[in-house]
Every structure is written in structure tokens, then in C-alpha cells.
Design goal:
Blueprint lengths: L22 H10 L4 E5 L2 E4 H17 L7 E5 L4 H12 L3 E4 L6 H10 L2 E7 L3 H9 L6 E5 L13 E2 H6 L16 E6 L9 E5 H15 L6 E3 L7 H4 L1 H7 L3 E3 L6 H11 L3 E4 L1 H8 L13 E5 L6 H9 L2 E8 L4 E2 L5 E3 L4 E3 L1
Helix pairs in contact: 1-2, 1-9, 2-3, 4-5, 7-9, 11-12
């Protein structure tokens, strides 16, 4: 009988060890539930099979433009399908996703693009004003790709091509590889509202994977949730919910603007079961006018975090038929051997 548990007989091999990565959630959902609706955005509908193909096209197109391991791809966009797809397509190319805060000014955006060494910037045309100013401040400019969303409001096209044109150059059967090491970076985020220059925080594949699954356990989330994107995807990668909802083969209901009527319409029309947001989102729902409201089609659960919600806000949201839930995030730093901080917010705790 073998007794050397660290020896070649029982060592790591592809049959017993795979680095943790949330990219596997997409592959599984596309394989197990190919025809379920994955993404809704206005009149657009994508199944999980189609979403997987679009993400692979993105990864392929980026790879063909020389993007690879450790390169940064920035995204300046609201909660639209392209932003969701970037959470998979960018790391499928081995690159690191940098989701930009759409509320920052040109100076802050320019600093982040330079400091993060972005090689590609995927930007929604609605933000062409601030992005144009930010790009003018850079000595070395990234490749710019425009999101030309039909639901957007104005703006100019600044880039080499549109996002959809970029996808047309990619292979839907692209043979992507997961990370060789689960500590490989998957996302780069920057703080906002702090003194001095924004501070960079890097998530690794393992941290994103564990936090995404932690969301499911903490919220006791069932299979196939219908999730409304009221939480910005640029906030800590949407608290990792791009990966969470994908793991559960749910439906991502995209929302460009968090407005009371748009929220109630999406809930009623799409059968939304879950949504997240800071207490200000709860206040928006509580204070909606009668003209903006529509009857809830069923139970809707809300997770709120960031600022502590007053008890009166939670009580108010529950009186309107929502299930309010407050979550406190613990900041746990994981450190690599070279002393670089790689992840924050890996472990959640319930308040």
C-alpha cells in the first residue's frame, strides 16, 4: 500500500486537481443548460450556449490582437451584456479585467488606465466625453473598442471598431485555457472616493470562485435565479455576482440605468427573483411613485451591503413585498510569495 501521500502515486494530476476559476461556471451552464435564457437586455435575448460562444469570440478576438497572460483590459460601461461577457472573455484570454467606475472624472480615469497599463479599453459610447478627455492625457493609448448599445443615449464612437465587430473576428469554438495557477489575477479594481490617487486591488481566480459560491450559500440561492443588475458591475465586479448567477445557470437581466420605473418594469416583465444594491437603491424602490410601480409577480429578494442600511429602510422594503437582507463584508487579504496583495473581500460574513 502506498504511504507517500505527496509522492508521484498520489500527486497532483488533471484527474484530481484543477485550479479554481469561475470561468468553469460558464462552461458548465452552457453544457448543462444550453437553451435556457442567460442574458436579457431590452429586446436582446441570449441563451447560455450563445453567451458562451460570445465570450469565446471575445477571448479569441483579444488573443488575435496580441492580448495574453497578465495584460489588462479595461471596460467603461454600465450593466450591459458586453460588460458581463468581459468578466469571462477577458480572463479566457489570460488577461485581467479592469472594470472602471463610470462616475469618475477624466483625470481619475486617465490615472487608472496608465497605472493599470491597460492595453485595450472597451467603452460605451455614452461615456465618450469623459473617455475622450482621459485618452488625450495618455502618452501611450490603449486599443479602443466602442460599445454601440441601441439603448444608449448619444455619444461618439472613439475606437478602432465596435464591440460587435470585434466579436465577428473571434472564433466561437476558441480553445481557451483556465489559469495554470489559481492565484493568477482575474480582475483589477480601483478604489474611489479616497484621498490621493485611487488604490489598486487585484482579485485572483481562486478568490473570485470562492466568493461567487459564498454568495450562493449566504443567500441560500436556488437554481436558475432571475437576477436584476441594479448593482454596478464595476463595484468589486458586481460583488462577484456575474460569476454567481452564471454558476446557478440563472438569468442576467441587464439594466443601463437604475431608475424606479425601469426597476419595477424589469421585475414585472422578466419575473425577477433577486437583486442587489446599496441602501440608496432600496430607498429608490421605497420612494417610487404610484405611476412608477407595478405589482410584483412573486417573491423578490434584495441583498444590500456597502453602507449599513437603517432598520427603517429594511422594514420599509419588506412592507412593499420585498425580502430585505443585509450583508457585511469582511476584508481578508491574501498574500503571494512575492509580497503582492492579491485579493480582498474573499470571505463573507452574515450580519
Amino acid at each position: 500500500m502506498a504511504t507517500d501521500f505527496d509522492g508521484p502515486a498520489l500527486g497532483k494530476n488533471p484527474a484530481n486537481y484543477v485550479p479554481l476559476s469561475p470561468l468553469t461556471f460558464l462552461e458548465r451552464s452552457a453544457s448543462s443548460f444550453p437553451d435556457r435564457v442567460a442574458v436579457v437586455h431590452g429586446g436582446q435575448r441570449y441563451t447560455w450556449k450563445e453567451t458562451y460562444a460570445r465570450c469565446r469570440r471575445l477571448a479569441s478576438a483579444l488573443t488575435r490582437r496580441g492580448i495574453g497572460l497578465g495584460d489588462t483590459v479595461a471596460v467603461m460601461a454600465p450593466n450591459v451584456p458586453a460588460h458581463l461577457e468581459a468578466h469571462f472573455g477577458v480572463p479566457m484570454a489570460g488577461a485581467v479585467l479592469n472594470a472602471l467606475n463610470i462616475r469618475l472624472d477624466a483625470e481619475a480615469i486617465a490615472f487608472i488606465l496608465q497605472h493599470g497599463e491597460a492595453k485595450v479599453l472597451i467603452t460605451d459610447r455614452e461615456f465618450s466625453g469623459v473617455i475622450g478627455k482621459a485618452l488625450a492625457m495618455l502618452d501611450v493609448k490603449p486599443l479602443v473598442i466602442d460599445i454601440d448599445d441601441p439603448l444608449g443615449r448619444g455619444g461618439e464612437l472613439l475606437g478602432e471598431s465596435t464591440y460587435e465587430t470585434l466579436l465577428d473576428t473571434g472564433d466561437p469554438e476558441f480553445a481557451w485555457n483556465g489559469p495554470a495557477d489559481e492565484w493568477q489575477a482575474i480582475a483589477l479594481n480601483y478604489t474611489s472616493g479616497t484621498t490621493g490617487n485611487p488604490k489598486g486591488v487585484v482579485y485572483h481566480h481562486r478568490g473570485a470562485y470562492l466568493n461567487a459560491l459564498g454568495n450562493i450559500v449566504t443567500w441560500a440561492m436556488p437554481h436558475h435565479p432571475v437576477y436584476l443588475w441594479t448593482l454596478p458591475m464595476f463595484h468589486c465586479n458586481g460583488w462577484c455576482f456575474p460569476w454567481t448567477i452564471t454558476a446557478m445557470a440563472g438569468t442576467h437581466v441587464c439594466l443601463r440605468r437604475v431608475e424606479a420605473k425601469a426597476v419595477f418594469d424589469a421585475i414585472a416583465d422578466q419575473g425577477v427573483t433577486h437583486l442587489c444594491g446599496a441602501p440608496i437603491v432600496l430607498g429608490l424602490i421605497i420612494n417610487a411613485t404610484e405611476a412608477e410601480r407595478r405589482p410584483l409577480p412573486g417573491p423578490v429578494e434584495i441583498m444590500t451591503a456597502a453602507a449599513p442600511p437603517p432598520a427603517s429602510v429594511l422594514a420599509g422594503i419588506e412592507r412593499q413585498g420585498f425580502s430585505g437582507y443585509s450583508r457585511v463584508w469582511i476584508d481578508r487579504g491574501l498574500w503571494a510569495g512575492d509580497g503582492v496583495r492579491l485579493a480582498r473581500g474573499v470571505g463573507p460574513a452574515v450580519a
